[in-house]
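Recall the central idea of this unit: under ordinary conditions, the amino acid sequence of a chain determines the structure it adopts. In this exercise we apply that idea directly, starting from the sequence alone.
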Amino acid sequence: MNARSNLLIREAGGLMLFAAGIFLLLFTANLRSRIYYHAPDWSFLLWISCYCGLTGLGLLKLRKWAVLLAFLPGVVYVAIVAYGLSKGASVQVPWIHFAAAAVFNYVLAVMLVAIPVVMLRSWRELRW
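Accordingly, the structure predicted from this sequence is:
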């Protein structure tokens, strides 16, 4: 296996495990605030943490199914942006000017798809 692509996949796995820890921390903080302060239920953070943890472990072990799972956020994000554009909606981030928000959304969509595409170059060396 190419050492550079191996390193990229393992670093992506480490970042996914870091993100899993962050989302788990956010879930526990939300759980605490729900118990003490009757805050809104953000239990989806647990599911995001499980997704990031599972994908991160798979990427660290160089598995094909983990690379396929890494495509999921990019595909969902592109589908949401495409649906919004087809309906004539403009997705805007409050702290950024409109044109910059559009560029931000397009760059995010490209990044969420491009990183797993780079990992696909070493598809034959990965294991199921």
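Residues 2 and 125 are 9 Å apart (CA to CA).
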